[in-house]
Amino acid sequence: MSQLDYDVALLRVDPTYFGFDPYVPLQMMWGDGVGDVITSWSTSDPDNFNLLVDLMKEACVQPENQMTEALSKCYDLISQQVPAYPLLFWNVSTA
Does residue 58 form part of some domain? Predict the structure, then answer.
């Protein structure tokens, strides 16, 4: 895939779709490659992308009381490196 030329990527994803576990949307977007397909992060900045992969692997083996801090490092890295921001979010309860 060639390098994409843009300033911001709009992503349509509801982080509560699979529940309220903060690891699930992280894995859904970056672990399974959906976010990378949209942003080409793994090819444009492989060092930081690989750092995220390592941080995610580290976070998923942490005890629950330490997982939040490890996941925060992942989200901080994403927010610093990837031009994808939630612009609108609404929560709809379903039966």
Answer: yes
pTM listed for this prediction: 0.68
Q: Which domain holds residue 46?
A: 23-81
Q: Would 16 be classed as within a structural domain?
A: no
Task: For residue 11, tell me if it sits in a domain.
Answer: no
Spatial contact of 77 and 48, defined as CB atoms under 8 Å apart = yes
Question: Residue 16: pLDDT above 70?
Answer: no
Residue 9 contacts by C-beta under 8 Å, 6 or more apart in sequence?
Answer: 38, 39, 82, 83, 84
Is-contact 63 41, C-beta < 8 A? no
Q: State the pLDDT at residue 13.
A: 63
> Model confidence over 70-83: pLDDT tens digits?
889 998 998 888 76
CA distance 86 to 35: 13
